[in-house]
Design brief:
binds BIS(adenosine)-5'-tetraphosphate, Rossmann fold, single chain, alpha/beta, 9 helices, 5 strands
């Protein structure tokens, strides 16, 4: 199996690039952000719990995120591989993912880290907020909080994958096609 973590700050293009990667390499996509938004729209118990965190731009507690990812893995055991989009977002999530994959005889082959300057991230999220109505993209304080949480809690995950020699940094600025070509050239060294 080819398991890939697509990593980056909010608005760096993880969701956008995941769609392209899935199409070309037939990996199974899991986006924790998309799952939370669907559960919130359907007002499920998980959605109601997640709502108060997501709408303020905070991270959902690790326990809730990890449970949902492991259920997803158990339901899709026969895939070619997974693309983890927006997960792991804390060191603890990264450690649990490593252990759980190991118990299933699997591993993360590659962690792709999209680098985009903060000014551009803010511009992209504001633009998306106007179109999509996503509450977490529309409020300046929430946008700043998401970037702060990324710096404080999520960025340290890079060192976890560097230590395991799986970290590949990609310039996330340019057209969607340009960024995708950079990602593909790394994937093709491994797949
Ligand atoms: P996510 O859904 O993961 O949201 P994101 O980081 O904002 O988006 P992404 O990087 O995928 O950006 P996109 O491609 O859409 O998380 C939302 C929330 O869920 C989190 O804040 C948190 O509360 C919660 N959550 C999720 N996972 C969690 C976890 N593991 N633990 C705890 N909590 C968790 O791109 C953004 C915009 O840029 C789009 O409008 C796109 O069109 C544009 N764009 C993309 N590529 C571009 C390019 N090359 N040039 C110009 N624009 C581009």
């Amino acid at each position: 199996m080819f398991n890939l973590v697509l990593f980056g700050p909010p608005g760096s293009g993880k969701g956008t690039q995941s769609a392209r990667i899935v199409e070309r390499y037939q990996l199974k996509h899991i986006s924790t952000g998309d799952i939370f938004r669907k559960e919130m729209d359907a007002k499920t118990a998980l959605g109601l719990k997640a709502k108060s965190y997501v709408e303020k731009g905070n991270l959902v507690p690790d326990e809730l995120v990890v449970d949902l990812v492991m259920n997803f893995l158990d339901q899709h055991g026969d895939e070619r591989g997974f693309i983890f989009d927006g997960f792991p977002r804390t060191i603890r999530q990264a450690e649990i993912l490593r252990t759980e994959l190991f118990e299933r005889g699997q591993t993360i082959k590659l962690m792709i880290d999209l680098k985009v300057p903060e000014a551009e991230l803010l511009e992209r999220m504001r633009k998306r907020g106007k179109k999509s109505g996503r509450a977490d993209d529309q409020d300046e304080d929430i946008l700043q909080n998401r970037l702060k949480i990324y710096r404080d809690s999520t960025e340290p995950v890079i060192s976890f994958y560097t230590k395991h020699h799986k970290h590949y940094e990609i310039d996330g600025v340019g057209t969607v096609d340009e960024v995708f070509n950079r990602i593909s050239s790394v994937i093709e060294q491994f797949i």
